[in-house]
Amino acid sequence: MKCNQEKLSKRLILAIGLAVLLGGSTYGEAAVRTTPLAVTDKNQTISDDFNFTTDKDNFSVIKADSSVSGGTITIDSKTIHAEGDNLGQLSKNAIIRTTGSSVYGKSGMNLDPASLGLDPGYEGTINLADGLTITGTIKGDGTSTMGIYEEGYDKLGTVVNNVNKNGFHRYIYSNNTGKPAGVTVNLGKNTKIDLTGIQLANRSGTVEDYYFRNFAICNDGSTLNVGDGSSLSATAYGRYAVTPAALYNSKYGVTHLGNNVTLSAKGVLTEKTSGNGAEVYGLISRHDHVGDDKSDVNGRQTVTAGDNLTVNANLSCHDIDYENPYSLAVIGAEIVNTDLTTGKNTTIHTTQDDKGLGTYGLFVNKESTATLGDGFQTIVDAKGTTYGVYGLYAQRSRNDKSGNVITFQGKAVTTVNAAGSHQAFGTALYGSTLTAQGPYTINLDCKRLCYPGRGSVPGKGSL
C-alpha cells in the first residue's frame, strides 16, 4: 500500500511539473491567454482569463461573428484586460465584440452583406459570468474603443457619392426596422467594466476633427441586460476632442439595468481645442452616434433601470482656450427618441470642473418619455465658468409631432450649484410636459442669470 502511495505521489508531482513547464494551469485554475479569441462554436464556453496587448487597429479580444450564430455563448472568465498602444484614427476596437447584423439600402430592401464584403453579423445570446472584471487602457489618435460592443446594426444605410467635411462617404439612412437585431448580451451580477483612453499626438497632423471615443458598453441595435450591482466606467484623456460614455444605447437598442447599477464617465481635455471639443455622457440613448451624419429616420430606443441607479458624468478642461469648439458639454443622462423608466432612488450627478458650454443633469429630446421612480434626484455642480447649466432640460425639436413627456412618480429633487455660470436653470421645459406625482423641490445656487423653473408642472409639484 505504501509503495502504491509513493508511486501515486510521484505521478502527481510529475503531472504538476509538466503542466507548469507547458504553461498550463493546475487545480482547476483558469489559464491566462495573451492572444485574441474568435468564437468557433455557437454554444462555446470560454473559461480563460485574458491579458492582451496590441498595437494593431480594430482589435477584438473576444469576437463572435455570423459563423457561430444561433446558440448561447458563455464567458466564464474572471478577468479580461486589454492594452492598446499607438492605435490609429478611426480604428474601432472592442474587448468583447459581436459583428454587425445587417446593412440596409435606400430602397428599403435588405441587401446581401456578402456582396458588399461584409459579415452578415452574429445573432444569438452571450452570457457573462457573475463578478467578471473587464478593463482596458487604450492609447491612440481619433480612436473608438468599447469594453463590450454589441454591433447589432453596423450601418442602416448605403454609401452615396457625396462626402462629409472630413472627406468620408456619407450614408443615407432610409430603412426603419423599428426593432433591435437578434442579439442579446446578459451581464452577470457585480460585473465591472473600467475603460481608460489616452489620446496621443497624431502621426500625420491634427486630430481636432476626430473624437477620441471610449464607451464601457455600446449597445448598437441589440438587447442588453446588466446584472444587479454592476459598474460601468469610461474615462478619456484627450488633447483636442473626447467622447467618453459609460453606456451608449442606439439604433433601436433595448437596455435593461438591474438594481444598484452605477454608470460613470469622465472626460479630460489637456490642450487648446478649436475642433469638436468634448461630449461626456454617463448614459446616452439615441438613434445616431456622436459625429454621425443625421439619419433620415429615427428609430425608438428603450432603457429601463431597477432601484438605486447612479449615473455620474464629469468634464475637466484645465486652462483651455475654447474659442471655437463645436461642443464642450457634459451630460449626466441624455435620451433622444427613447423611453426611459427607472425604479426608486435614481441619482444623476453631473460635474463640470473648469470651463464648458453646456452642463446638464437630465437632457430629454425628440419625443422621448422619462418615467422616474420615487426619490429621483439630479445634482449638477458647475465649478468653473459655464455658459448654460441645467438640472433638467427638455426640448421639442421643430419637426417633432409631439413634445417630451416626463413623469416623477413620487418625491423628486433637482439641485444646481452654478455660482460661476452665465445662466443656470433648475428645470427648463420647451414644448414638453412634466408631471410631478409627489413633491418636487428645486435648489438653485446662481450669481448671474438664475431661473429655478421655466415651463409648468401639473400635479403636486410646482416651479
Explain how this protein is built.
- It contains one helix and 37 strands.
- It has one helix at 2-21, and strands spanning 32-33, 37-38, 45-46, 49-54, 60-64, 72-75, 79-87, 92-98, 124-128, 133-140, 144-150, 158-163, 169-172, 183-186, 192-199, 212-220, 223-226, 231-238, 242-250, 254-257, 262-269, 277-285, 301-305, 310-317, 327-336, 338-342, 347-352, 355-365, 369-372, 376-382, 385-395, 405-408, 412-418, 423-430, 433-436, 440-446, 449-454.
- It has a twelve-stranded parallel sheet, with no helix packed on it. It has a twelve-stranded parallel sheet with strand order 2-5-8-11-16-19-22-25-28-31-34-37, with no helix packed on it.
- The chain is globular and about 60 Å long.
- The model is unreliable at 1-28, 103-118, 169-175 and 456-463 (pLDDT under 50).
